[in-house]
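Please predict the structure of the following assembly.
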Amino acid sequence: MTTLSWVDYAVMALYFAFVLGIGAALRRYVRTSEDFFLSGRSIPAWVTGLAFISANLGAQEVIGMGASGAKYGIATSHFYWIGAIPAMVFIGLFMMPFYYGSRARSVPEYLKLRFDEKTRALNAVSFAIMTVFSSGISLYAMGKLLHLLLGWSFDVSILIAAGVVLAYIFLGGLTSAIYNEVLQFFLIVLGFAPLVFLGLRAVGGWSGLVSRLAEHATAGGFAPGAYTHSWAFMGHASANPVGVEWFGLVMGLGFVLSFGYWCTDFLVVQRAMAANSMTAARRTPLIAAFPKMLFPFLVILPGMLALVVSPASGVRAAAPAVSSTSTTSPTSTTSITSASAVGIVPPKVDAHGAPLRDAAGGVVLDYDLATPMLLLHFFPAGLLGLGLTALLASFMSGMAGNVTAFNTVWTYDLYQSYVRPGAPDAHYLAMGRWATVAGVAISIAAAYVAASFNNIMDFLQLVFAFVNAPLFATFALGMFWKRTTGHGAFAGLVAGTLAAAVHHGLSLPAGAAVGVKGGYLGVVTTFPSELAQTFWTAIVAWVTCFVVTIVVSLFTRPRAPDELRGLVYGLTRQPVDTAAPWYERPVALAVVVLAVTLVLNAVFF
Amino acid sequence: MSLDIRLPLGAFFTLLGVLLTGYGWATRGTPGTTPTGVPIDLIWGAALLVFGVAMLGLARRARPSSRPGPFSVSERGDDT
């Protein structure tokens, strides 16, 4: 376990003082519910753009993408260059005119305006449940990590982090969350940049990393370049560590999952809705795309580096002691010997501290520790405080994104619509604050559920994936085909979710046991990897939703065109941005974003 | 919104930069502070300091009250 110096605590204290200070300073600007939930639609594009990216830059991203970097290599960048950028360009150019232009206050509210009450209710309820549980899962991950690395108490860690998030949202609402997300964005970038610099320096630069990973690749039975090329080995699922072929990758991740998340998830869309004009709202995801496409270097490279740096090269030469205990029953602390680690990535350990082994006898690595281990490895006192604060900031920005999306959907789409319509605005403002308290409280409860019943959380995340997968078909049809009806949308969503569950229940990733990983309806087909199964489940869900929505729409009565003005393509005046200088126009930004993404793909092909 | 985010952003990174640069200077030469031969606290602290001051500069430039002139007080916005 690593002991921190006073200077590390000073960095954290400074951060806490500023996030709380920002919340307190913004309190006096919150007068109406629209100020609280939508920042009074008054924030400039560069701020909403950075918040758009930062709300998504939660722990799952920083820790998870580092873990995937160690597991899959540079191919993890597909989650960015294929799995995010095209969708971010699409929502900015084509979907934002409907979200922002309709004056809807949330994504479920757009569904109500475009379709009907039941489609909104379905989306609002599933979204509200998903956000608080995701925030709880991320809280659990944070508590566990801090306990593991620093020996901090699980309870105290999550209570303090949740308490700070609660305080700044309670005071300043969405504006406070967005302002803090901008601070957290810079903190994460500036906290991780020196890590990549020191790591690359230690392994002899990019070429050194390539040659060291080539050894790792051949040892695992892949071609030498399998960890350092993103496309070259995507021809067949067995040729790359990801275990996916290019079609499943492009359609499943690049189209269905990516567009489903970036174009329909209220957590990110809410940031754009807070922008001060239509052009600013459209520029929000496009501005966000610039840092997003460079993030692979910040979050994936640390994972790849952790796999190959020599354990003796850091500032803390001795292997850090890692507690093997679960967070609920602290019994023993075991020092991981470097013998079973790869680079500085330690193995997963069982209750007795012995490394876990897979069916073939190989050591199972704890990839989630790749990035945190690299922090401890290279950062001396001072910078370690900065790195850990950046990690904390990522947990908190992700949680704040979930909580602000939850309080808005609860207050506007559930409480105001079904529990108490027609109350004065001050009542909904107060409800928003109390919903924030409730959202944080449920997150904490969910974190404890995750700590005690890990399988329940796996199961819930699976259900969420089923609910999310078909969403983009509904929105794409709703926005671009005026014949789509509410009955069609509702039937499509339900059918898509069921199709996802059935496909998952009939398939299994290679080497997995029947259960939460699939196969519970009988194993009809197997996939080379879990990701391949996920991507294909999403494709099946999307196609089902798309087809069912069209068929049911054709058999039900469409709404009159007059009722759909501002909601559907063809019945909405397209925004024209000729007045702004070229670099502020959404189309010009989109062209630049796509061109740079293409170049990045080519460089790492 | 009436609070310029660059103000707290600049202040935070300026203070952070001062803290890290100072700590890096005070502990220079101590074993375990220069991974791969780089006095990283000192260098990165200075970088953060530059970033923080630049943000404060941008925030100040955007404020009407920073313009010199006899009427600068009356031009002050409500964003204090």
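Confidence is low (pLDDT under 50) at residues 318-337 of chain A. The domain at 6-307+321-452+575-603 of chain A is CATH 1.20.1730.10 (Sodium/glucose cotransporter).
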